[in-house]
Amino acid sequence: MTVSPWRSLLNKDFRLALPWFLGGLGLIIAFDLWFSRASLLGTRLAFSSMLVFAHFIYFPVYLFISLWLEGKQIHLWLYNPCPAWQLILSKLVVGIPFTLLSLGVSGLYPIYLVLGPMNLFGNNPTLDPTAFWSDVGLIVLTILWTSFHLGFFLLAVWSVHRWLRTYMGKWSWVITTVGTLAFLYLLTQWVTSPLHASLFQWGPSAEWKLLGDNRGFEPVYTGEILSDLLMTFAFFFLAQWILEKRMEV
């Protein structure tokens, strides 16, 4: 039975990422076991929650490792019969489930502490469980959304760097770094401007229940979600265009 190039690509990316994924799970379990030795429940919850919030950078780190390994044999990777967008998509198809699984495992111990030893709702009868878990769910979605967005940004930066490297050699790191910092500065100026707020802060799609009362947590706006999606597609398009049109095999 002939295996399609797309399926072969998926199998290759899966084998490439699996050791790092299993290693990450091993670290999460080891740290949780270590944190469980703390005498104070609050200390255990604080440190174990740090593993959850570490997933803000999980997907970018996964992509960085995967692209760094591909960079060692870039010509073999680009020589694959699949088009550039499939080369990238394969890594996303593999990396996104791994990110979800890792985040789920990292959340098991904090949830156990909240519902078990800490008995959060029993000791705080005025606390609304629905509002609490709504905020927790929104935090998880924010972590995933940010992680994936950063991953696509890293993908675009890596592609630009590989393109510049063919012309500038080692100097490409300098140009890429300066260009990235300049882009981040301009992006920050844009997203904090009144014009951006007037264009994209519309249609609140989710609101914080407990964290939204004068704690600096603004609603999640539909307009800003669409803005992030457009930027994500732009990063993806730029990366595949560079790999397809500007990189020499």
TrEMBL record:
The chain crosses the membrane at residues 16-35, 47-69, 89-112, 132-159, 171-191, 225-243. It comes from the Bacteria. Keywords: Membrane, Transmembrane, Transmembrane helix. This is ABC-2 type transport system permease protein. It comes from Kroppenstedtia guangzhouensis.
